[in-house]
Amino acid sequence: MIEASVIRVVIAEDEAITREALTALLGLEAAIDVVASTGRGDRVRELIESHRADLVVLDLTMPGMTGLEVAEELHRERTGFPVVVLTSHGRPGEVQRALGSGVRGFLTKETSADKLVRVIREVHGGGRYIDQELATDALSAGHNPLTPREVQILRCLEDGRPVRDVADEVNVSEGTVRNHISSAIRKLGVSNRATACRQAAQAGWI
């Protein structure tokens, strides 16, 4: 029977081999119980609720919902729920967005298992841990200058969709989409929409 002091953890990681390794490693800790795991972001909330989890370890890149989208949803609906992000990369904009979404732990996958365990305990106890290099990069990158609508439109443009299709998707006129594109280009100091999308993506803003 699991003791009340054990931290009940859900792991959300789209790579099966990594997910299984994390489950096995954390399972060696007497104070941690991996109660569920998934490769899809849109299953996280369901698993947290059905397994009465105390904390979730999230990857950023997952089908269904990204790790950041999951964190944002949890922040809206379960403010204060402990979230640790474990990712192979941490672009400045992603770190900024994660912190704004209540994420209290942010680590790269180069982190040792021992350190991950320590961070899980610290975050579960109300603390915070952000990888120092990631935090420095996030601070030096500055604030995301794009509005939520500009972010939405640049995301839609990433795969080369025409303005007409983007306008239909976000339910505004083509002229409005072009205005937002022009604004984003000006803010980012670039010359065209493709470069704007690339620069915003590299910063982790879209």
UniProtKB/TrEMBL annotation:
Residues 8-124 form the Response regulatory domain. Residues 139-204 form the HTH luxR-type domain. It holds the Pfam family GerE. Keywords: DNA-binding, Phosphoprotein. The modification 4-aspartylphosphate is found at residue 59. It comes from Streptomyces gossypii. The lineage of its organism: Bacteria, Bacillati, Actinomycetota, Actinomycetes, Kitasatosporales. This is Response regulator transcription factor. The keyword Magnesium does not apply.
